[in-house]
Amino acid sequence: MNPQIALPILIPLLAGAVSLVFWRSRGMQRFVAVAGTGGLLATSLWLLATVSRDGILVMQMGDWPAPFGISLVADLLGTIMVVLTGIIGFAVALYSLATTGRGHEAYGYFPLMHLLLAGVAGAFLTGDIFNLYVWFEVMLVASFALLILGSEKAQMEGAIKYVTLNLLSSVIFLVAVGLLYGMVGTLNMADIARRLASLEGNGMVDVLAMMFMVAFGIKAAAFPLFFWLPASYHTPPVAVSALFAGLLTKVGVYALYRVFTLIFHHSPGYTHEILLWGAGLTMLSGVLGAAAQFEFRRILSFHIVSQIGYMILGLALFTPLAIIGGVFYIMHHIIVKTNLFLVSGIVHRLRGSYELKKLGGFYRTHPWLAVLFLIPALSLAGMPPLSGFFAKFIVIRAGIEAEAYGVTFIALLVGLLTLYSMIKIWAEVFWKATPPEGDVDPYPEVNQRELWLMTAPAIGLALCTLFIGLNAGPIHALAEASAAELLDPERYIEAVLGSGGERGMGGGGAP
Amino acid sequence: MEPLMAVAIGILFAAAIYMMLRRSIVKLVIGLMLLSNAANLLIFSTAGMVRGAPPLVAQGLTAPEGVVADPLPQALVLTAIVIAFGVLSFAVVLVRRAWEIVRADDLDRMKDTDT
Prior knowledge:
Chain A: It is found in: Cell membrane; Membrane. Chain A: Keywords: Cell membrane, Membrane, Transmembrane, Transmembrane helix. The structure holds two protein chains of two kinds. By secondary structure, chain A is an all-alpha fold. Chain A contains 21 helices and two strands. Chain A has a domain at 267-470. Chain A has a two-stranded antiparallel sheet with strand order 1-2. Chain B is mainly alpha-helical. The longest helix of chain B has 32 residues, at 71-102. The chains are: A mainly alpha, B mainly alpha.
């Protein structure tokens, strides 16, 4: 038995249930939030230790043998994503102790947060494509409710776009799953991969590949399907923004990686070429969108879009080095992006605004906060020795080696424009003089204890960034191992189905 | 039977997309409903239409004899219906709340958060 593979899903579900039981007890809900996400982080690290030692870990639900039941599969990519979910969940849980008002907590902020984490972890660990759809929906329903927490006008307007486009993507995903089942008669991803290999040259396979690409492209906010993201991510409470920014689009990216390395890897000249163009345009449109914005969280939202382009670029180039770069980029990006949103929340708490025009003078009044912003901001732009430098370096080197000079040039240009955006925030919020009293709203009152609760997770994530940057060797080795797994889908298939052909009796999961 | 289903599903998808492209948010929700029903019907029909052949295994055999209806897509449809029901009820409430707050049934008047 390997309980650690199911625990990252069960713990958030249980924590959500417990915090529903203590609906009226604010203290208990807050305690469960920290304990539950802490437990998630601990078990995910345990899972990572097991998986990096023993290889792909499989568990068959209800002990039904592989193609018939639902399998939970923890390969390195899935496990890395679960660890990142744990880190972000824990950081945001601590942060939201200070930022979530009583009103939001009374409407079930914490149970929804646990449900969202369970959905995200489930999506990373499942080995069944319909089950992936179910986890997507679990995650989406929780995110819908979190997005409109507070019911402000902007939230409603953003939520309508978010809900519509995400439902559309779910329907496309569902239809593609149905058609895939009609073609191969199985839902287990390893089994699908094995059976599709014998169907090569069937035009329907490419149609299905495109349907999955569109469905996950909407979730991942790739060009030209990203418009829901900048319309909604800056509207909810900041802890929710940070959680979404770190995890939700990356679930789409993960699904793209999973599907296009395991199932649809037979005609890369067609599918991965489209991904390549999509990646280039995603990077460019995201960063140009950010250049036009003057609101803290809107700039950051557009940068999510442009960074998604780098991750898809890693997948699209489809060389070993590119996949390493993509996985490394995901690790770096989740931590840095959440951190930037956390810092924007601290700035908002101190000055009551996200508008760059109304902010200023933070370097004079809060030098420590300026440093805290500068670490993730420069990392996002790709300055050595921070994590973003190595992530960008690997992806761009892979692009040059694959002789995809056009996209590589875009990637370099976008790096420069990212730096411009970050310097814009730095200059407006931290460097320029404080705007005269009359132009800004009165500063809100700040409770020192709450401020520390908000700062601690941001410091923790900044240390993670520094750790990835200064200790890039082991992290690179981890990304390398997971890329090797992704590029050799036989290993995944054998771990799930066993090597004994179609009716193999499961992998190492059986007790 | 299958061609008829294919045409029906096609009409449902077309109607759904037409409704979703209207400016009214109420019509948007109707479009979403049609869309999820179209998807459910499509999954239902991918298994093939088999009549009067339940997937039962006779005694002494390990697999059913002859062509039988595939039960799995029906289970999938059941799951998808439940999920779609939950999500759509959320969407209906969202549209109602949005109307209460914005006082408009027109997506063109909900552009504050656009960029």
